[in-house]
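Quality-control log, excerpt.
Job 1 of 2 completed; input and output follow.
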Amino acid sequence: MAKALILVVDDDPRIREIVGFALRKEGLETVEAGDGAEAIAVFDRARPDAVVLDVLMPEMDGTEVCRALRARSSVPILFVSSKDDEVDRILGLEMGGDDYVTKPFSPRELAARVKAVLRRAAARVAAPGKTAEARRMRHGKLELDLDRCVVAWEGRESVLTATELGLLEILLRHPGKVYTRDELMEGYTDGAFVSGRTIDSHIRRLRKKLAALGGEPIETAHGIGYKLGECA
């Protein structure tokens, strides 16, 4: 089986070396970029399976790179930043990031989080013997294509990140059921700790995408969590 390829983007070569070593130790392959423009060029050439992306870089910062990559792909993106403010975390996630790690970080934890987002992305791949129809989930006007990582509302489509797809898949399993943030976090994190605000950020971004298609099916159960409402 081919090893997953991770693009490591940071203007500090020492950070790239530390991250690259930690990822390779976990059996992953890496390619590197020292700035935003190079990151986009390397991404287009190498087509990595995930991106570890520094936020604070000169000229073209990580959020701009994330926008450019999201226009091309739903590849998992893990932000790395020295900014530990919760507002910055939420902004990074709402920009389309799948996870956010602050410096200084544990290389082992970062590698574990990269492997977690890869597992979530891999869940989109059809299992042997399953038909294409079995890889689609429907609820009224809402349809989720697990293989293409696409959500549709009355035929209008939008591409989701791996995390957005995973959260919507959970809600679609039992429409009308209220899922607590803890239940959603368990499905989202593969055991890694995240705050409830992280889940809220991903749900908010997912809602925006659905609203742009004409639907608002995700409902808030105040103080508890979220559920998928009627999609008639």
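Job 2 of 2 completed; input and output follow.
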Amino acid sequence: MQVNHFAQMHLALTLLPLLQKTPRSRLVVQASDMHQTSPSDVAFASIDEFTSDIGPTYLYGRSKLANILFVRALHRRMLRGELGFSKGAPTVFVNATHPGAVSTDQPQQAEEAYGLLGTVGVALVRPLMKDPVAQGCRSILFASTSEEVVDKGLNGEYIVPDKMVQTPNAKARDEQLGERLWKVSLEILRLKLGKLDYGYDLE
């Protein structure tokens, strides 16, 4: 959560004033279809929820769920004219992306987490994985550079290979869950960083 969500949220909120001054700017958060593996009882109700070891698959899935919920919560605030935005169609295009099954060093983490079972599983699926440079970056490159994003008004969306908007699972579309994540994330950022001054009202 620290790397995949809290750090990205802090960076995004820090960059917003600059992005707002840049017409048709983009903000892209790398999520994953692994958001579907987040635990069914995820609530983002308190800081205490993040101190329990729920296993590597659930931990990763929860962080990827947080990526999509954050993008959608940020987009809602843009539409409402919050965070320094004017109410209406936002000029910053914020989306979450899924790279597909990409051959990175992440399978090594599965081997470490699951031992022999992880090693066997990785050996079976690695031949099916995409090259991270030739194919794995296509979704995020599309979201960050393509004029189609602006022309089609793709904002607050979940984009998967290849250049397709997909509906994430029900938890990722749960606005109340997203609002709780927003609130507890700000609590954690304040706990770790002190007063948050991004140049606009967060509430």
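Post-run check on job 2. The radius of gyration is 17 Å.
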